[in-house]
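Example record used in the benchmark description.
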Amino acid sequence: MSEEKLVGIVLVSHSAEVAESVARLAQGLASGGAAVPVAPAGGRKGGRLGTSAELVTAAAASVDRGAGVAVLTDLGSAVLTVKALLAEGDELPGNTRLVDAPFVEGAVAAVVTAATGADLDEVQAAATEAYGYRKV
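Model output (structure tokens):
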């Protein structure tokens, strides 16, 4: 049986622990759907805080299943790192997008939506829509 083409999700945080925890949370909440490829790309080598272009590149390659890769980030330099990689043009898989979404809620929405077999546009829309989630 051939592998289903699903949108891959990369979670870029300044902290490895935060990226890994959000990935586990999103995958746990999406249980019951297809197993979405999700990769955390947090921190820098040696466990330091920050962002690493190498970790982002490796994470994106690891989740690429041919349906696109959605990249969600936490803070400023994570955004700049991903934008720089996208501008270079050959560092990330084709059809990789930086998604403007809240990190936790957007990640959950992206993974849950991708688990339905949705395409990259739908995954991006669901993650972006998370900005409107009200808590009170």
